[in-house]
Amino acid sequence: MTNDTDIPKPKDSHDLDYRWHLSQSDSEVICTELEFALMRCYEAFGRWQTECLASVSDARASGPENALMHIVRMNDRAKSIKELARLTNRDDIPNIQYSMRKLVAEGFVEKQGSGRTGVTYSATDKGRQVTDDYGAIRKRLLIEQIRSLPRFDTRLREAGHSLNILAGIYEEISRIAATHRR
After folding, report:
1. pTM of the complete model beyond 0.90
2. Could you read off the pLDDT of 77-93 as tens digits, one per residue?
3. How many CB atoms lie within 10 A of CB 74?
4. Which domain holds residue 163?
C-alpha cells in the first residue's frame, strides 16, 4: 500500500528551469516563451487551415495559400501581388506568384490584366463557394470554441493588438540587423 508521500507530485511551474541560451533574465524568459508559443501557434494554425480547407474541397493547398485565397476574397475586390504581399507582410514575391498560379489552376481565383496593364486576382464563383464553406466550418469549430471561453474575445483583441505591435518591432529590428550584418 502506498501513501500520498510515495506518489510523485507535479512540480509547480516556478520550479521549472525556463532558462536556455536565449533567456537568462525574467524578461528574456517571457519573450522567449512568447516566441516559442508563436512558432507552435503558427504551425498549428497552418495545419488547421489545411485541414479546414480539405474538409470543404479536394484542393491541396498549404496554410499560406489558403490565407492568400481568403485575402483575395476580402472585400470582394481584386488584388495585385504587391497588395497580397503587403497584406500578408511577406516579401517572397516569387512564392506568392507560385501560390497564385496554384489557386488559379484549382479554379478558386482568376487572373485579370497583364504585365502592361497590371495583374490582379479575384475570387471565382468556385472560390467564393469554397471560402463560404470554409467560413461556415470555421464558425462551427473555431468560433464556437472561442465563445465557450470566458472573456476570450477581450483576450484575443488584446493579443491581436500586442502581436501587431510586436510585428512592427520585429520589422524594425530586422532592418537594423540587416544594416549591421557582418
Report:
1. no
2. 999 999 999 999 999 99
3. 13
4. 149-182
